[in-house]
Amino acid sequence: MKYSTDYSPIEMMIIAGSREIENGQILIVGTQWPIITTLFAKKTHAPDITICYEGGVVLESIPDRIPLFTGDPCIASNSVLLNDSLDTLGMILHAGYPDIAFLPGANVDRYGNINTTCFGDYSRPKFRLGGSGGACDFGSLAKRVITMLEHERQRFPERVDFITTPGYLDGSDSRERVGLRPGTGPGAVITTLGIFRFHKDTREMYVDTYYPGGSIEEVKKGFQWDIRVSENIKVADPPTEEEIRILRAEIDPFGMYLKNNKAKTISTL
Amino acid sequence: MTMSKAIKEFVRDGDVVYLGGFIQHEPYAAIHEIIRQRKKGLTGSSCAGMIALDQLIGAGCLDRVITTYTWNPLPKPAHAFRRCLEKGIPHDVKIEEYSILALTLSYFAGALDLPFVGTKTLMGSDLAKNSSFLGENKLKIIESPFNGEKVCLIPPLKHDIGIMQVQRADSIGNAQAWGIMGDSKYGINSCSRVIICAEEIVDTEVIKRDPGRTIIPGFKVSAVVEEPWGSHPSYVTGCYDMDWKYFSFYDKATETLDGFENYLKEWVYGVKDRSEYIKKIGKKNLDALKPKPWSGNPVDYGYCAQYQEDYIL
After folding, report:
1. Do A140 and B99 make contact, defined as CB atoms within 8 angstroms?
2. What angle do CA B28, B34, B35 make, to 5 degrees?
3. By residue range, what is the domain housing residue B176?
4. Catalytic residue among A11, A54, A60, A217
């Protein structure tokens, strides 16, 4: 096993995300980075995971072309269950089956609340985004929500403008107080800078892990509040050469996800 | 029936319109005809839409919208949707938003004529805190009369008219659709009037050979339109794939208001019907979207011709 010295921050994020997955788990998966991350895990260390998508798909195998979104016909034709949203968001997610829900996010705040609705005032936004889709259902219902996004400071405000997808709301037990089930909520936020988790009592996000070549100072600058840092802060292992080869050559051979990000290669030398 | 006649006869100004399909099956041919006929004051209801609501909003057909998500799947912004909600162009549209599960449950309640459905999703989100034209009736969070836990009640949503594209239907409207179905079955069954747009109109015998694929019975359907490629640029499983290049073209073409107007002039007002639109896309482009076959073993619905000889009621 040889560590790679030539990989992009996006590739590091995907591999860090995949390491959160254990073989045999049931996942419900949102669009963008979660798609490639979960398929990569299935191709490598977790071949027996089950991947569910909001429109009514249960997938046990890797499609022969990479899905570009969760409505892609290539996931339908390879699935073991193909029906509708009451199957996957209802009888799977609402019923409590998924071990992890993977989501993309535009903005994430101190308590893991996610905004994909708008920037500015909701009634007359400065910038209107697409909306929830199934994201609010993932965030409301799943045992462990993992959010993946490119790390930019403006994506990490202390409080999001609009809570599309509830995280721990105002921290502490506020999530349970609004009626969401105990034992659900954000588990990790995984970005191009590191891995962030949530304090078990305050439910506040903290820096758990940063990536090779990075630093605590650099990571802290990526947040609009003074984020806490774990006393046992870790540095992630870099991807192996084999992982990067599989990701590029077997999971995304046409660069549908990775092409535009290759230029931003970091070096760990 | 022709699309033009179906829209003229069954879509009325001010209607609450369900736009069916969940990514696939979106009725773009019907949407373009609604725009050509300059329908006004509609409420557009679409669970996980791409650019269907975007086009109707930009064309000024909608006053109100019910949705969970509206975005170009590239992913790129739905520009007319953004212009409308950020700047009120071409006029202000009120938006009511749920999550996919909550809106699907609302359609489900509408389809069954239930008073409400209870769920554990949505609570704590700002989707639950904000409402517009539905006001107090968007949802209610109460304590369950059974165990006291908090539960979110979603009211039934009923539509005056529903439109969706399907793979096939017979001439009386028994409609069959397959693939990723999302909210479609519940949405299309929650409508007073229904227009089914079919890739192909088939003999009822074809329907009867695989009745498990029917999503709505003919007696609920007001009109059937045969409209091949009616979901383009979206897809219909087994018929044609997503036209990603067209979504990319649409993104660039509609980024400015002028661009959007020109798009309508060229691709909606500038063509008389779907067949002209399809001609404009061109055979080469269409051929590239034809899928490789992925057919299953035929399903058997067989049964014995008679009951057992010694079985008497």
Report:
1. yes
2. 90
3. 3-133+155-287
4. A54
Q: Which residues pair with A198 in a beta bridge?
A: A205
ipTM of the complex: 0.97
Domain count, chain A: 1
Q: What is the identity of the amino acid at A185?
A: G
| pTM for the model | 0.97
Give the CATH number of the domain where residue A87 resides: 3.40.1080.10
Number of domains in chain B: 1
CB contact under 8 A, B101 and A131: no
Nearest to B292 by CA among B235, B238, B228: B238
Active site residue A54: yes
- Which among A124, A130, A166 is the nearest to B69, CB-wise? A130
Q: What is the CATH number of the domain that holds B268?
A: 3.40.1080.10
Residue corresponding to tokens 């209802």? A90
Distance between CA atoms of B157 and B111, rounded to whole angstroms? 8
Per-residue pLDDT of chain A (269 residues), as tens digits, is: 899 999 999 999 999 999 999 999 999 999 999 999 999 999 999 999 999 999 999 999 999 999 999 999 999 988 999 999 999 999 999 999 999 999 998 899 999 999 999 999 999 999 999 999 999 999 999 999 999 999 999 999 999 999 999 999 999 999 999 999 999 999 999 999 999 999 999 999 999 999 999 999 999 999 999 999 999 999 999 999 999 999 999 999 999 999 865 433 333 22
**Angle at the Cα of B176 from the Cα atoms of B170 and B182, rounded to 5 degrees:** 150
Domain limits for position A101: 9-264
In sequence order, the 6+-apart residues with CB closer than 8 A to the CB of A239 are: A3, A4, A7, A11, A12, A15, A247
For residue B294, the chain A residues in CB contact (below 8 A) are: 77
